[in-house]
Design goal:
- By secondary structure, the chain is α/β, with parallel strands linked by helices.
- The chain folds into two domains: 2-206, Spore Coat Polysaccharide Biosynthesis Protein SpsA, Chain A; 209-283, no CATH class.
- Helices cover 44% and strands 16% of the residues.
- The chain has ten helices and eight strands.
- Strands 3, 4, 5, 6, 7 and 8 form a six-stranded mixed sheet that branches.
- Helix 2 links the parallel strand 1 (24-28) and strand 2.
- Helix 7 (209-229) packs across helix 9 (261-278) and helix 8 (233-257) packs antiparallel against helix 9 (261-278).
- The longest helix is centred in the C-terminal third of the chain and has 25 residues, at 233-257.
- The radius of gyration is 19 Å and the shape is globular.
- The relative contact order is 0.14.
- This is Glycosyltransferase involved in cell wall biosynthesis.
- InterPro entries: Glyco_trans_2-like, Nucleotide-diphossugar_trans.
- It holds the Pfam family Glycos_transf_2.
- It comes from Roseateles asaccharophilus.
Length: 285
Protein backbone atom coordinates (compact mmCIF):
# COMPACT_ATOMS: atom_id res chain seq x y z
CA UNK A 1 0.00 0.00 0.00
CA UNK A 2 2.93 2.34 0.58
CA UNK A 3 3.94 1.93 -3.07
CA UNK A 4 0.37 2.68 -4.17
CA UNK A 5 0.32 5.82 -2.01
CA UNK A 6 3.59 7.00 -3.55
CA UNK A 7 2.21 6.36 -7.04
CA UNK A 8 -0.78 8.54 -6.16
CA UNK A 9 1.41 11.27 -4.66
CA UNK A 10 3.83 11.30 -7.60
CA UNK A 11 0.97 11.58 -10.13
CA UNK A 12 -0.66 14.31 -8.04
CA UNK A 13 2.49 16.44 -7.86
CA UNK A 14 3.27 15.81 -11.53
CA UNK A 15 -0.18 17.08 -12.50
CA UNK A 16 0.38 20.21 -10.39
CA UNK A 17 3.87 20.65 -11.90
CA UNK A 18 5.09 20.72 -8.29
CA UNK A 19 7.61 17.87 -8.10
CA UNK A 20 10.53 20.32 -7.77
CA UNK A 21 8.71 22.38 -5.13
CA UNK A 22 8.08 19.54 -2.68
CA UNK A 23 10.48 17.65 -0.43
CA UNK A 24 9.37 14.08 0.22
CA UNK A 25 10.33 12.67 3.63
CA UNK A 26 9.98 8.91 4.10
CA UNK A 27 10.32 7.47 7.60
CA UNK A 28 10.78 3.73 8.12
CA UNK A 29 9.84 2.91 11.72
CA UNK A 30 11.44 -0.56 11.99
CA UNK A 31 9.33 -2.09 9.23
CA UNK A 32 9.85 -5.88 9.07
CA UNK A 33 8.84 -6.20 5.39
CA UNK A 34 9.95 -4.72 2.04
CA UNK A 35 9.23 -1.14 3.08
CA UNK A 36 12.91 -0.06 2.89
CA UNK A 37 13.16 -1.41 -0.67
CA UNK A 38 10.00 0.43 -1.71
CA UNK A 39 11.30 3.64 -0.17
CA UNK A 40 14.68 3.29 -1.88
CA UNK A 41 12.98 2.73 -5.24
CA UNK A 42 10.73 5.77 -4.91
CA UNK A 43 13.51 7.94 -3.53
CA UNK A 44 14.98 7.92 -7.02
CA UNK A 45 11.72 9.17 -8.57
CA UNK A 46 11.33 12.31 -6.48
CA UNK A 47 13.78 15.18 -7.18
CA UNK A 48 14.00 16.08 -3.48
CA UNK A 49 13.65 13.11 -1.14
CA UNK A 50 14.91 12.10 2.31
CA UNK A 51 14.69 8.48 3.46
CA UNK A 52 15.35 7.77 7.14
CA UNK A 53 14.97 4.86 9.54
CA UNK A 54 13.67 5.68 13.02
CA UNK A 55 14.58 2.85 15.38
CA UNK A 56 12.55 4.07 18.37
CA UNK A 57 9.22 2.33 17.91
CA UNK A 58 6.13 4.50 17.75
CA UNK A 59 4.19 6.83 15.47
CA UNK A 60 5.18 9.91 17.48
CA UNK A 61 8.87 9.03 17.19
CA UNK A 62 8.43 8.55 13.44
CA UNK A 63 6.58 11.84 12.98
CA UNK A 64 9.15 13.70 15.04
CA UNK A 65 11.89 12.23 12.86
CA UNK A 66 9.98 13.53 9.85
CA UNK A 67 9.70 16.99 11.39
CA UNK A 68 13.43 16.97 12.05
CA UNK A 69 14.22 16.04 8.45
CA UNK A 70 11.73 18.41 6.79
CA UNK A 71 13.04 21.78 5.59
CA UNK A 72 9.85 23.47 4.33
CA UNK A 73 7.75 26.15 5.97
CA UNK A 74 4.77 23.76 5.96
CA UNK A 75 5.01 20.04 6.75
CA UNK A 76 2.27 17.80 5.35
CA UNK A 77 1.57 14.40 6.92
CA UNK A 78 0.10 11.41 5.10
CA UNK A 79 -0.59 7.84 6.13
CA UNK A 80 0.95 5.13 3.96
CA UNK A 81 -2.38 3.65 2.85
CA UNK A 82 -4.23 6.49 1.11
CA UNK A 83 -5.11 7.68 -2.38
CA UNK A 84 -5.32 11.42 -3.10
CA UNK A 85 -8.20 13.44 -4.51
CA UNK A 86 -7.36 15.71 -7.48
CA UNK A 87 -7.49 18.93 -5.40
CA UNK A 88 -5.90 17.48 -2.27
CA UNK A 89 -2.69 19.52 -1.88
CA UNK A 90 -3.78 22.99 -3.12
CA UNK A 91 -6.88 22.97 -0.93
CA UNK A 92 -4.91 21.70 2.08
CA UNK A 93 -2.33 24.49 1.74
CA UNK A 94 -4.67 27.37 0.88
CA UNK A 95 -5.79 28.15 4.48
CA UNK A 96 -2.17 28.93 5.40
CA UNK A 97 -2.57 32.25 3.55
CA UNK A 98 -4.05 33.35 6.89
CA UNK A 99 -1.00 33.80 9.11
CA UNK A 100 -2.99 32.83 12.22
CA UNK A 101 -3.66 29.35 10.85
CA UNK A 102 -1.10 26.95 12.30
CA UNK A 103 -2.54 23.56 11.33
CA UNK A 104 -4.92 22.40 8.61
CA UNK A 105 -6.64 19.07 8.13
CA UNK A 106 -8.94 17.66 5.51
CA UNK A 107 -11.52 14.98 4.96
CA UNK A 108 -10.64 11.27 5.25
CA UNK A 109 -13.07 8.97 3.44
CA UNK A 110 -13.14 5.23 2.95
CA UNK A 111 -11.41 4.05 -0.22
CA UNK A 112 -13.38 2.35 -2.97
CA UNK A 113 -16.53 0.49 -2.02
CA UNK A 114 -15.66 0.20 1.68
CA UNK A 115 -18.61 1.66 3.56
CA UNK A 116 -19.06 1.82 7.30
CA UNK A 117 -21.03 -1.23 8.46
CA UNK A 118 -24.52 -0.73 9.85
CA UNK A 119 -23.42 -2.05 13.24
CA UNK A 120 -20.83 0.73 13.72
CA UNK A 121 -22.35 3.93 15.19
CA UNK A 122 -21.52 6.85 12.90
CA UNK A 123 -20.04 8.92 15.75
CA UNK A 124 -17.34 6.27 16.07
CA UNK A 125 -16.23 6.38 12.44
CA UNK A 126 -12.88 7.77 13.59
CA UNK A 127 -12.13 4.36 15.14
CA UNK A 128 -11.69 3.04 11.60
CA UNK A 129 -9.86 6.22 10.49
CA UNK A 130 -12.74 7.95 8.70
CA UNK A 131 -13.12 11.68 9.33
CA UNK A 132 -15.95 13.68 7.77
CA UNK A 133 -17.23 16.05 10.48
CA UNK A 134 -18.40 19.11 8.50
CA UNK A 135 -19.35 20.11 4.97
CA UNK A 136 -17.91 23.62 5.16
CA UNK A 137 -14.49 25.02 6.16
CA UNK A 138 -14.18 26.16 9.77
CA UNK A 139 -11.99 26.49 12.80
CA UNK A 140 -11.98 23.30 14.85
CA UNK A 141 -10.39 21.58 17.85
CA UNK A 142 -8.79 18.71 15.95
CA UNK A 143 -8.29 17.05 12.58
CA UNK A 144 -7.19 13.54 11.60
CA UNK A 145 -3.57 12.50 11.25
CA UNK A 146 -4.07 10.74 7.91
CA UNK A 147 -4.42 14.12 6.18
CA UNK A 148 -3.09 17.26 7.85
CA UNK A 149 -0.35 19.90 7.73
CA UNK A 150 1.54 22.09 10.21
CA UNK A 151 3.59 25.25 10.03
CA UNK A 152 7.17 24.42 10.96
CA UNK A 153 7.34 27.57 13.08
CA UNK A 154 4.50 26.45 15.36
CA UNK A 155 6.30 23.19 16.12
CA UNK A 156 9.38 25.13 17.17
CA UNK A 157 7.12 27.16 19.45
CA UNK A 158 5.03 24.44 21.14
CA UNK A 159 7.15 21.31 20.71
CA UNK A 160 6.74 18.04 18.84
CA UNK A 161 4.56 14.96 19.31
CA UNK A 162 4.52 13.29 22.74
CA UNK A 163 6.34 9.91 22.38
CA UNK A 164 4.21 8.46 25.21
CA UNK A 165 1.23 8.77 22.86
CA UNK A 166 0.65 7.47 19.35
CA UNK A 167 0.68 3.93 18.03
CA UNK A 168 3.48 1.63 19.08
CA UNK A 169 3.42 -1.71 17.31
CA UNK A 170 0.24 -3.48 18.39
CA UNK A 171 -0.60 -0.83 20.99
CA UNK A 172 -3.21 1.36 19.32
CA UNK A 173 -2.45 4.41 21.44
CA UNK A 174 -3.70 7.76 20.17
CA UNK A 175 -4.10 11.31 21.38
CA UNK A 176 -0.77 12.61 20.10
CA UNK A 177 -2.44 14.83 17.51
CA UNK A 178 -5.05 16.17 19.94
CA UNK A 179 -2.27 16.94 22.42
CA UNK A 180 -0.35 18.92 19.79
CA UNK A 181 -3.45 20.78 18.61
CA UNK A 182 -4.30 21.72 22.20
CA UNK A 183 -0.83 23.24 22.62
CA UNK A 184 -1.20 25.11 19.35
CA UNK A 185 -4.53 26.61 20.36
CA UNK A 186 -3.20 27.61 23.80
CA UNK A 187 -0.67 29.93 22.13
CA UNK A 188 -3.30 31.45 19.85
CA UNK A 189 -2.79 29.30 16.74
CA UNK A 190 -5.79 28.25 14.69
CA UNK A 191 -6.53 24.65 13.75
CA UNK A 192 -8.54 24.69 10.52
CA UNK A 193 -10.67 22.05 8.82
CA UNK A 194 -11.19 22.09 5.06
CA UNK A 195 -13.54 19.48 3.58
CA UNK A 196 -12.21 20.19 0.07
CA UNK A 197 -8.89 18.43 0.74
CA UNK A 198 -9.73 14.72 0.55
CA UNK A 199 -7.82 11.48 0.89
CA UNK A 200 -9.30 8.02 0.49
CA UNK A 201 -8.21 5.67 3.26
CA UNK A 202 -7.82 1.92 2.71
CA UNK A 203 -9.61 0.68 5.80
CA UNK A 204 -10.81 -2.80 4.77
CA UNK A 205 -8.54 -4.42 7.38
CA UNK A 206 -10.04 -2.19 10.11
CA UNK A 207 -13.71 -2.96 9.51
CA UNK A 208 -13.70 -5.67 12.14
CA UNK A 209 -15.31 -5.60 15.56
CA UNK A 210 -12.14 -6.98 17.16
CA UNK A 211 -10.05 -4.09 15.82
CA UNK A 212 -12.61 -1.46 16.81
CA UNK A 213 -13.04 -2.61 20.41
CA UNK A 214 -9.25 -2.93 20.77
CA UNK A 215 -8.84 0.64 19.51
CA UNK A 216 -11.55 1.81 21.94
CA UNK A 217 -9.54 0.31 24.81
CA UNK A 218 -6.33 2.08 23.78
CA UNK A 219 -8.22 5.32 23.25
CA UNK A 220 -9.27 5.12 26.91
CA UNK A 221 -5.63 4.58 27.91
CA UNK A 222 -4.51 7.54 25.79
CA UNK A 223 -7.11 10.00 27.03
CA UNK A 224 -6.51 9.08 30.68
CA UNK A 225 -2.78 9.74 30.24
CA UNK A 226 -3.38 13.01 28.43
CA UNK A 227 -5.99 14.36 30.86
CA UNK A 228 -3.90 13.49 33.90
CA UNK A 229 -0.76 14.99 32.40
CA UNK A 230 -2.61 18.22 31.58
CA UNK A 231 -3.64 18.53 35.20
CA UNK A 232 -7.36 18.25 34.47
CA UNK A 233 -7.93 16.88 37.96
CA UNK A 234 -11.70 17.07 38.22
CA UNK A 235 -12.24 15.66 34.73
CA UNK A 236 -9.72 12.89 35.27
CA UNK A 237 -11.09 11.99 38.73
CA UNK A 238 -14.69 11.92 37.46
CA UNK A 239 -13.89 9.77 34.43
CA UNK A 240 -11.68 7.44 36.47
CA UNK A 241 -14.46 6.95 39.02
CA UNK A 242 -16.94 6.33 36.20
CA UNK A 243 -14.58 3.82 34.60
CA UNK A 244 -14.36 1.85 37.86
CA UNK A 245 -18.16 1.95 38.20
CA UNK A 246 -18.70 0.85 34.60
CA UNK A 247 -18.43 -2.96 35.04
CA UNK A 248 -20.58 -3.04 38.18
CA UNK A 249 -23.15 -0.24 37.83
CA UNK A 250 -23.24 1.40 34.40
CA UNK A 251 -22.71 -1.46 31.94
CA UNK A 252 -25.30 -3.83 33.51
CA UNK A 253 -27.91 -1.12 32.89
CA UNK A 254 -26.61 -0.01 29.50
CA UNK A 255 -26.30 -3.40 27.81
CA UNK A 256 -29.94 -4.60 28.20
CA UNK A 257 -31.13 -1.29 26.69
CA UNK A 258 -29.02 -1.77 23.55
CA UNK A 259 -31.66 -3.15 21.19
CA UNK A 260 -29.98 -2.68 17.77
CA UNK A 261 -26.59 -3.88 16.46
CA UNK A 262 -25.31 -0.29 16.45
CA UNK A 263 -26.50 0.30 20.01
CA UNK A 264 -24.90 -2.96 21.12
CA UNK A 265 -21.60 -1.96 19.52
CA UNK A 266 -21.82 1.48 21.13
CA UNK A 267 -22.19 -0.24 24.50
CA UNK A 268 -19.15 -2.47 23.90
CA UNK A 269 -17.05 0.49 22.73
CA UNK A 270 -17.88 2.43 25.89
CA UNK A 271 -17.15 -0.63 28.02
CA UNK A 272 -13.71 -1.11 26.48
CA UNK A 273 -12.94 2.63 26.62
CA UNK A 274 -13.69 2.57 30.38
CA UNK A 275 -11.42 -0.46 30.82
CA UNK A 276 -8.57 1.34 29.07
CA UNK A 277 -9.11 4.50 31.10
CA UNK A 278 -8.80 2.71 34.45
CA UNK A 279 -5.80 0.64 33.24
CA UNK A 280 -3.76 3.61 32.04
CA UNK A 281 -0.92 3.27 34.55
CA UNK A 282 -0.37 -0.37 33.59
CA UNK A 283 -0.19 0.41 29.85
CA UNK A 284 1.76 3.68 29.48
CA UNK A 285 5.56 3.29 29.52
Amino acid sequence: MLAETLVSLHAHLLKLNALLQVQLVLIDNNSPDRTPDVMAEWQMRFPVCVHRRETQQGLSYARNAGLDAATGDVVVFLDDDVELHDDWLPTLLHPFTDTKVAAVGGKVLAFGSNELPDWLPREYGYLVSVFDPFDSPRETDKVMGANFALRSSIVRQVGTFDPALGRKGNKLLGGEEVDLFNRIRRVGGIVWYTPHSVVFHKIANKLRKEYIVDYAYWLGVSEAHLEKRLGQRLKYAFKLLRSWCDPWLINPVRRPLASTPAAQMRSVIRERYAAGYRNMHAEID
